[in-house]
Description:
- This protein is mainly alpha-helical.
- Helices cover 65% and strands 4% of the residues.
- The chain has four helices and two strands, in the order ββαααα.
- Strands 1-2 form a two-stranded antiparallel sheet.
- Helix 3 (56-78) runs antiparallel to helix 4 (86-103).
- It is extended and about 55 Å long.
Amino acid sequence: SVGTVVSGGHMSDFVPDQFNEKAALYKQRNALYGDTYKLQGELMNLLFQGGLDLDGVADHNRYAIFQTMISKMCRYAANFKVGGHEDSLDDISVYAMMLKELDNGL
Length: 106
């Protein structure tokens, strides 16, 4: 049929294998971070209680970096009782400098 990947008349296992790998990755990450992605909307709503009006490319770029930092903070918080999450702290430090660069119009 149209769109089916065939090799020697058989459908490839590539797509199902990819789904299985991603399901395993989801379970692994969810065990580490929990459902922190479900908390981010509430957190952003608290941080921007007056709403958020993004105007133009520069604002969208700054918000994207800021949102990424919040995501990393949520990952750190999910691991707070076990000593934090070093990789997220490293990422936050880099994203903070990227945001500072954007804030300075560079």
